[in-house]
Amino acid sequence: MTHPDHPVPGRVLLSAPDIAAIVARLGREITQDYAGRHPVLISLLKGGVVFLADLIRQITIPHHIEFLRVSSYDGAIRSSGVVRIVGDLEIDLVGRDVLLVEDVIDTGTTLAYIVDMLRLRNPGSLEICALLRKRVPNQAGIPIRYLGYDIPDEYVVGYGLDYRENFRHLPFVAALDPESAR
Ligand code: IMP
Ligand code: MG
């Protein structure tokens, strides 16, 4: 049992207080590094929305938020390798300090694709902030400027992350039982 209020077939990897501590640290780092620069934080929908909402409340300098909606999983447990943009940004990135805020990096396929796409828009800078990174072989080698936590190669849910649109609301991150995640 993961939590009496939120029974999930799996085990807790990061509790709500664990996540809060990580997000506070990331917010402090971003606040320091971007002082005086007014960065644009880009969140990937839908999974990244909970993380972004908490992260921006730990950032004490002015910044903008934007949303990008991509689809790479099509409801399956493994990345298809095909990334589609289904909702684009509202602003021009030319010369802007862009921080891409990602929930979890698995194969890195999604991120590699998005980074290439955003570079073509000539931002002044482009960095990545990821809450979770899985330890997987052959991960696309993208430098992560701000990393929350390394996790084992398991399917995780909660704190915005879903399995077939379930479990996004959980206040913790749990590894789903492989039996349930088929
Ligand atoms: P990647 O392209 O394999 O790195 O996968 C990237 C995207 O797939 C992430 O942004 C998530 O939206 C989703 N994803 C990857 N692993 C998980 C997981 O364990 N749980 C839920 N979503 C995941
Ligand atoms: Mg995502």
List the helices and strands and how they pair.
Elements: E1 10-14, H1 16-33, E2 40-45, H2 49-56, E3 64-71, E4 84-87, E5 97-105, H3 109-119, E6 125-134, E7 146-151, E8 156-157, E9 173-176
Helix pairs in contact: 1-2
This protein binds inosinic acid and magnesium ion.
- Approximately how much helix is present in the residues? 10-25%
Shape: globular
Distance between the termini: 19 Å
What's the overall average pLDDT, rounded? 91
Q: What is the chain-wise order of helices and strands?
A: EHEHEEEHEEEE
Strand order of the main beta sheet, please? 4-3-2-5-6-7
How many structural units, i.e. domains? 1
Strand content: 25-35%
Radius of gyration: 16 Å
Overall CATH architecture: 3-Layer(aba) Sandwich
Which cofactor or ligand species appear? inosinic acid, magnesium ion
* Structural category: alpha/beta
Q: Kindly state the number of beta strands.
A: 9
- Put simply, the count of helices is 3
Contiguous uncertain segments of 5+ residues: none
Q: From the 3D structure, determine the CATH topology.
A: Rossmann fold
CATH class: Alpha Beta
